[in-house]
Design a protein that fits this description.
This protein is an alpha/beta fold. About 55% of the residues lie in helices and about 15% in strands. It has 2 domains: about 160 residues, NAD(P)-binding Rossmann-like Domain (Rossmann fold); about 90 residues, ProC C-terminal domain-like fold (Orthogonal Bundle), CATH 1.10.3730. The chain has a 5-stranded mixed beta sheet. Strand 8, helix 6 and strand 9 form a beta-alpha-beta unit. The structure holds NADPH dihydro-nicotinamide-adenine-dinucleotide phosphate and (2S)-3,4-dihydro-2H-pyrrole-2-carboxylic acid. (2S)-3,4-dihydro-2H-pyrrole-2-carboxylic acid binds next to helix 7. GO terms for molecular function: pyrroline-5-carboxylate reductase activity.
């Protein structure tokens, strides 16, 4: 996910020389240099010396370990003034309190849930801060994530699990559905390239149209569904399979997992 954000930031005009990535493995660091020409370091503390904004993009269970490494440096006071750093956590499930408890008080923390399309500037990031955070930190987090897509601010942290299910994880559901369509089209006899093009262009057209339209998704669906026509048969098959219930079950599972991750 860090690569997706970096790709999106560079695409948006951020300079690679202004980005430092810390990763333990030489393999990942070499890949990042090769792909993005960013600065790299094996020691997480290098991030504190280098950056005003630090994105925690490690697996949720590693976040406490990284906070332990950063805490002494983040707490340092220079010339009688403690520096204000902004940390953005993208770890699924982890609450603001569970991370900020591990950080010095001078650190501003924003919880974010981006998704993979940040890599092409078309991400969606859910953001949450408790009421007492500095305006500047809120603006900086918003500006950074806006560089890689759109943002939504959550008033209630409980909603973060739903954003994980709706945005963080959801590109995978769409890929899965498109894969299933490709397989079915090939099974019906289309060449693989034709199947792929037909599926992806149709998906892009449908999403673009839905985003541009004020009519609502159900209305657009009805426009495609001629009475006694072909679409009706496919829609009926989805409904007989109880697509709504299946999607709700899948999204509930993702949200439940986000809540489990919060418990560690
Ligand atoms: N994948 C996605 O679409 C999304 C993921 N997220 C969140 O992003 C986070 C990362 O997920 P994802 O990118 O999928 O996971 P990956 O396993 O792909 O990436 C995790 C990265 O963390 C690095 N890492 C491991 N240990 C440390 C450490 N001690 N200090 C610094 N870096 C370390 C790894 O480096 P190395 O390769 O060198 O081991 C690796 O590059 C998770 O918290 C996830 O919930 C949020 C939204 C979407
Ligand atoms: O699957 C995961 O746990 C991460 C969080 C959201 C998307 N990927």
């Amino acid at each position: 996910m860090a690569s997706a954000i970096i790709r999106g930031l560079i695409k948006h005009g951020h300079r690679s020389a202004h980005i430092l990535v810390c990763a333990p493995s030489q393999r990942t660091r070499s890949r990042l240099v090769q792909d993005f020409n960013v600065r790299v370091h094996s020691d997480n503390s290098a991030a504190v010396a280098f950056a005003d904004i630090i994105i925690l993009a490690v697996k949720p269970f590693i976040v406490p370990l990284v906070c332990d490494e950063l805490r002494p440096l983040l707490g340092q006071v220079n010339n009688g003034r403690s520096e204000q750093k902004l940390l953005i956590s993208i770890a699924a499930g982890l609450t603001h309190a569970s991370i900020s408890d591990k950080l010095p008080q001078n650190v501003q923390l924003v919880c974010a849930m981006p998704n993979l399309p940040t890599a092409i500037g078309k991400g969606l990031t859910g953001l949450f801060v408790p009421g007492h955070l500095d305006r500047q930190a809120v603006d900086d987090a918003e500006q950074l994530m806006r560089a890689v897509g759109d943002t939504v601010w959550l008033e209630d942290e409980q909603q973060m699990a739903s954003i994980v299910a709706t945005a963080g994880s959801s590109p995978a559901y769409f890929f899965l559905f498109l894969e299933a369509m490709e397989k079915a089209a090939i099974a019906q006899g289309l060449p693989a390239k034709t199947a792929s093009k037909a599926v992806l262009q149709s998906a892009m057209g449908a999403v673009s149209m839905a985003m541009a339209s004020k009519e609502g998704l159900a209305n657009l669906r009805h426009q495609v569904t001629s009475p006694k026509g072909t679409t009706e048969q496919a829609v009926l098959a989805f409904q007989h399979g109880d697509l709504d219930a299946l999607v709700a079950r899948a999204m509930d599972s993702a949200a439940r997992r986000a809540k489990e991750l919060a418990l560690g």
